[in-house]
């Protein structure tokens, strides 16, 4: 059975303001955002088998609420969702706390350019190949926290942040 991050003891719960720029969760926490419950459940189970903690969200609004519980170490984010889409969800979360890496997971082709424009380095198209996903998750989480901070700083200094260009 899927053990959600909320089922962990309360002293292991991330607190608002504590994210991966200051400390990593143990086990590392991944927020999975997808409106398809089968995708959410199967990704959660696959990641838990690899000793990751997971939080699940079925739409953009729920994702933002779960994000506000304390930033995760990584976000898997679908684009096509009800209420607010994945792009809007990403923009809200990145304004709150820009240090969390994101992997876009989508069935919609031709989204790599938009992801790159927003500073998202990884996009995986559905159907997902789980070994590739796991390898990508491990690679991103193995990067030092300062690598993510450096990306944000470089974007800030070059005015490449989304919404800052005229």
Explain how this protein is built.
The protein has a single domain, classed as Response regulator (Rossmann fold), CATH 3.40.50.2300. It has helices at residues 37-49, 60-68, 86-96, 112-117, 130-142, 145-157, and strands at 29-33, 53-57, 74-78, 102-106, 122-125. Strands 2-1-3-4-5 form a five-stranded parallel beta sheet, with helices on both faces. The chain is an alpha/beta fold and 166 residues long. Mean pLDDT is 80; it is low at 1-22 and 149-166.
How is this fold's topology laid out?
Blueprint: E1 29-33, H1 37-49, E2 53-57, H2 60-68, E3 74-78, H3 86-96, E4 102-106, H4 112-117, E5 122-125, H5 130-142, H6 145-157
Parallel strand pairs: 1-2, 1-3, 3-4, 4-5
Helix pairs in contact: 2-3
**Largest beta-sheet characterization:** 5 strands, parallel
Question: What is the fourth-level CATH superfamily?
Answer: Response regulator
The level of helicity is 25-40%
- What is the overall silhouette? globular
């Amino acid at each position: 059975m899927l053990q959600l991050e909320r089922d962990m003891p309360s002293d292991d719960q991330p607190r608002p303001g504590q994210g991966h720029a200051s400390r990593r969760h143990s086990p590392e926490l991944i927020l999975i955002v997808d409106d398809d419950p089968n995708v959410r459940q199967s990704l959660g189970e696959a990641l838990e088998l690899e000793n990751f903690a997971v939080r699940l969200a079925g739409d953009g609004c729920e994702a933002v609420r779960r994000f506000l519980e304390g930033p995760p170490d990584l976000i898997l984010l679908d684009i096509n969702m009800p209420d607010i889409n994945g792009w809007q969800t990403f923009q809200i979360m990145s304004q709150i706390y820009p240090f969390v890496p994101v992997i876009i997971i989508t069935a919609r082709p031709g989204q790599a350019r938009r992801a790159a424009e927003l500073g998202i380095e990884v996009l995986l198209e559905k159907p997902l190949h789980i070994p590739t996903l796991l390898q990508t998750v491990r690679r991103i989480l193995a990067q030092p926290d300062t690598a993510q901070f450096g990306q944000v700083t470089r974007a800030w200094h070059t005015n490449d942040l989304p919404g800052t260009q005229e």
